Amino acid sequence: xxxxxxxxxxxxxxxxxxxxxxxxxxxxxxxxxxxxxxxxxxxxxxxxxxxxxxxxxxxxxxxxxxxxxxxxxxxxxxxxxxxxxxxxxxxxx
Length: 93
Prior knowledge:
Elements: H1 13-24, H2 30-39, H3 55-67
């Protein structure tokens, strides 16, 4: 199962807990699973919600696409403002 963006779905904590006995033939509690995942650097986070585009924003995107429809994109660098963590940051903000 993949989300609309093509990224593989991340298993839920309960799914991880249920799969451990299948692999290691031992049962573990949710709290033990959580503690070990936190020990490996995983965090509990909620997905940030995104706002729905207004009709003006949709129109601006259509106009931009029409304006740049015939651009030569061979020398274009596409960037976004996504934040990627390349190294583990031990400082909490």
